[in-house]
Amino acid sequence: MNYIVEKLHLTNAEEVNEVRSFLAAFQLDYEKDIDYTVVIRDSNKIIATCSKAKDVLKGFAVDNSLHGEGITNLLIKAIQDRLFQEGIFHSFIFTKPAYETTFKSFGYKVIASVEEVTLLEYGFNDIHKSLATMKNLYNIDTTTPKTALVMNCNPFTLGHRYLIEQASLKSEEVLIFIVEEDKSLFPFIDRYHMVKDGVADLKNVTVIPGGKYIISSATFPAYFLREETKVLSAYTKLDATVFSEYFCKQFNITKRMLGEEPYCPVTRNYNESLVNVLENHGVEVEIIPRKRISTPENYISASKVRNLIKKEGREALEHLSDFIPAVTLNYLRSEEGKEVIKKIINSNTPH
Fold this sequence. Notes:
This protein has helices spanning 13-24, 71-85, 100-104, 127-137, 158-170, 188-198, 221-225, 232-251, 265-280, 302-312, 326-332, 335-346, and strands spanning 5-7, 36-42, 45-53, 56-62, 91-95, 109-113, 118-122, 146-151, 173-178, 205-209, 253-259, 284-288. By secondary structure, the protein is of the alpha/beta class. It has a seven-stranded mixed sheet with strand order 1-2-3-4-5-7-6, sandwiched between helices. A five-stranded parallel sheet has the order 10-9-8-11-12, with helices on both faces. Helix 9 (265-280) links the parallel strand 11 and strand 12.
């Protein structure tokens, strides 16, 4: 039988719901960040589908009665053609461990696997080359044991600064990985420079872009969607496993410090996974209580800063000095900062 691959119209709610129902039979979700979907039909009924979100393939499913008929090949070729059209030559796929062998036959390489999900990548670049490049670019000495922190800093606050100070005081060397995925209200490049400039006095601290393998759409999409789905636990374990098996080994990271998270369930779940996975890999984890202003309830957080800006606009800058350092305050007073303030006021994103 000649099967035809069809592009789905994402603006057509009926078509999207049809795919969502098909995926549900495979215990898969049709995730919010999907930007392209193809389907194969038989007698006008979906029998196979695959989607992508930027450079990440997801939502792959084929009717169980049709395996071995070349349908997977049609789906993957259609998605890869789309990726190449968009100039994307390095891609990832989340899939169930049962499909691992299938994707390896198409040239995909396994990065990490937990009991519920496997992450694979395709293309000339891979995680080993990326970490080798990172090591050279930031002159990372791998002979010295290090403490690592991973931060989004949306924006950089005095709470972040306090956490980094604690790591600096307790460690010989500290690596700060800034989440590079550009899905936050403060652009990555501005978050990176706020942190780098804001800790320049701490001589044992190196600030590094996190790249594709730390809290990215590839390793942890639920972080940006702020979803508490049934797959959240799998995502958090996967991200923690990638950090343990590659970053800790490559850079001699023996300790990871985390900020206390009593409020956001996604970050709290992530912290719990980190403790379990890292300690199983022999990496120490220390959780630092949040920095507070005068009372236990008056904690510092980036979300609190964004909420104050959303409520008061530029007027909030007059009383944010207890929450953010001068480098962040100066940024918010710049032309770039004014644009971010407008985005915060007009946005309903939690991130």
